[in-house]
Amino acid sequence: xxxxxxxxxxxxxxxxxxxxxxxxxxxxxxxxxxxxxxxxxxxxxxxxxxxxxxxxxxxxxxxxxxxxxxxxxxxxxxxxxxxxxxxxxxxxxxxxxxxxxxxxxxxxxxxxxxxxxxxxxxxxxxxxxxxxxxxxxxxxxxxxxxxxxxxxxxxxxxxxxxxxxxxxxxxxxxxxxxxxxxxxxxxxxxxxxxxxxxxxxxxxxxxxxxxxxxxxxxxxxxxxxxxxxxxxxxxxxxxxxxxxxxxxxxxxxxxxxxxxxxxxxxxxxxxxxxxxxxxxxxxxxxxxxxxxxxxxxxxxxxxxxxxxxxxxxxxxxxxxxxxxxxxxxxxxxxxxxxxxxxxxxxxxxxxxxxxxxxxxxxxxxxxxx
Length: 369
Ligand SMILES: *Cc1c(COP(=O)(O)O)cnc(C)c1O
Fold this sequence. Notes:
alpha/beta; TIM Barrel; Lyase, Ornithine Decarboxylase, Chain A, domain 1; nine-stranded mixed β-sheet; 12 helices; 19 strands; binds pyridoxal-5'-phosphate
């Protein structure tokens, strides 16, 4: 019998502690650590993760959207929270809930300054983001002078941090490009910092940057995927522990005769008699239709069962012809011994996508092993 009788995402907080400790070991004592808990804590449970991170003295949290920060405040999280991708329509909420916006363009800056002035706030913390090559969000190096003109002496705000984001920190082929991003950032800082007064927190690296570019740790690092147990590199993966395990259960077993089909569109036609197991997880749960038809597998009683036929919305079928198993047995989709990174790779994806895709209807269970 399975430990869980429905699809369940198990969240292991002791693995989270382990990963934070490992990553902290890569930093100088004085370097701060910001933990990224966007997208439900990379598909887990942002509140459970953030509470635990707060208890182990993380310095900062970051979310992508304002709503995610509000949910953390509602849950009583007191840590400073950087909102990486705020929209001006949410500035009132940001201020109301003591969230700290990433200011990444003149449009966003001006609208935030208007809000701050209207409320006659003093020294509201903001974070300035520079685009050094990712070309996603951020001011350009040539914006520095004009930017300083707008913020210098403005009593309503205080630049709490200045940061950039690396485009390919996990890719050894792109070392030169990454180094050029770091150089550009240094150049920006050399113009910006002398005019800012109090030194803001400087930060640039994500998880792979922490591991591959120690020279770019500055005052703080931002880690997301690493604290969840993945490092984009087998060399470092072995030191980390996946925090989440996606578990399920065999709903039904079918004996399929030669020539019979399995699933929608009859995508699998059995070439010989086979046995299939139906699992209550589908594309609406985060196992996309890029899986199936031989791509991807689950583990049942320690054996790999390939996903066969098309993935349905709420279920998928696996071939268990060679596996000793029965209805009600546990199914492991990913977890510490079956990393999400490997499964994702089979569908041309990455751990990030598979982890964050786990739908909200899957039960979360928090454990400390
Ligand atoms: C998501 C995100 C991170 C975290 O990246 P990981 O690769 O998961 O460590 C860091 N910084 C920014 C700006 C992000 O958007």
